Amino acid sequence: MKSFVLYTISPLYQSWSKVIVILDSRRLLNKFLTFDQPCLVLMGLVEILGQIQIFNQNYG
What we know:
The protein has one helix spanning 44-49; strands at 2-9, 16-23, 29-34, 53-57. By secondary structure, it is mainly beta. The chain has one domain (2-57). Strand 1 and strand 2 (16-23) form a beta hairpin. The longest helix has 6 residues, at 44-49. The protein starts with a strand and ends with a strand. 12% of the residues are buried.
């Protein structure tokens, strides 16, 4: 599995949030978790589709 840290800017909070995106081998979105603002989970797909920066991360 590959995971990415996706930094998005929330139109609701007008602040930066970190979203963890986990992709499986088929590059399908399995799930997304947000750490800074839990309410972003409700708009996670919108935030993910509006990606700003993606950084490769290794989570063991």
